[in-house]
UniProtKB/TrEMBL annotation:
It is an enzyme of class 2 (transferase). NAD(+) binds at residues 10-29, 87-90, 171-173, 213. It comes from Marinobacter zhejiangensis. The active site is at H105 (proton acceptor). This is NAD-dependent protein deacylase. It catalyses: N(6)-succinyl-L-lysyl-[protein] + NAD(+) + H2O = 2''-O-succinyl-ADP-D-ribose + nicotinamide + L-lysyl-[protein]; N(6)-acetyl-L-lysyl-[protein] + NAD(+) + H2O = 2''-O-acetyl-ADP-D-ribose + nicotinamide + L-lysyl-[protein]. Residues 1-227 form the Deacetylase sirtuin-type domain.
Length: 227
């Protein structure tokens, strides 16, 4: 059976494609606080602002492309079983060629009913406007896990992490829970590598590559047969 590589990715890998991130702006995303655009309360208070914010993010996503890190992770599927667990809401992993992607925090190119979270629509890069409703008449909202909401895919991700033969962590500071807790689901003898140019959170047994996503993933892939 092929080794199973589980990859946990965060904002750092998307930033190298040119996407703005909260992480790089001190909790702001192009001057917007997370509390203004990424909470259920924000949507209730000012739905027009929140919809406009995510419409802009969706428009930006349509203008960027997967980078070499996304492509290298996809190419690993030729030799290994690979599952991507991403905190990102973009579709760059899929566009880069990865076939197994778990989105912990939702997907920017999908919308869902405000009344029934299970009613989800693919919207590609189209905007969501006030008055756009689901088949039952409820306003549509971005299919995004906002701060303060449950993370419905976390148990699926935890089950996947328990089957890892290698864990690769790319572009995330491991500060956001419950995603950060996934590292503790991996068996203790599984090799763990963290790729981050900054100061990553402590993973006691991890190998750390202090480089950006593209350069770091290329280095890790070239060394993969050595560990």
């Amino acid at each position: 059976m092929k080794d199973h590589i589980v990859v946990l990715t965060g904002a750092g890998i998307s930033a190298e494609s040119g996407l703005s991130t909260f992480r790089d702006n001190g909790g702001l995303w192009e001057e917007h606080s997370v509390y203004d655009v990424a909470t259920p309360e924000a949507f209730e208070r000012n739905p027009e602002l929140v919809l406009r914010f995510y419409n802009d993010r969706r428009r930006q996503l349509a203008e960027v492309a997967p980078n070499r890190a996304h492509e290298l992770l996809a190419e690993l599927e030729k030799t290994y079983r690979v599952t991507i667990i991403t905190q990102n809401v973009d579709n760059l992993h899929e566009r880069g060629g990865s076939s197994r992607v778990i989105h912990l925090h939702g997907e920017l190119t999908k919308a869902r009913s405000t009344r029934n979270p299970a009613t989800i629509y693919d919207i590609d890069y189209r905007p969501i406007e006030l008055g756009d409703t689901c088949e039952h008449g409820s306003q549509l909202r971005p299919h995004i896990v906002w701060f303060g909401e449950d993370v419905p895919m976390i148990e699926v991700a935890a089950e996947v992490a328990r089957t890892a033969d290698h864990l690769l962590i790319v572009g995330t500071s491991l500060q956001v829970y419950p995603a950060a807790g996934l590292v503790h689901e991996v068996d203790f003898d599984v090799p763990v590598t963290v790729i981050d140019p900054g100061e990553p959170a402590t993973v006691s047994r991890a190998r750390v590559i202090r480089k950006g996503a593209c350069e770091g993933v290329a280095e890790w892939v070239s060394d993969l047969g050595k560990f």
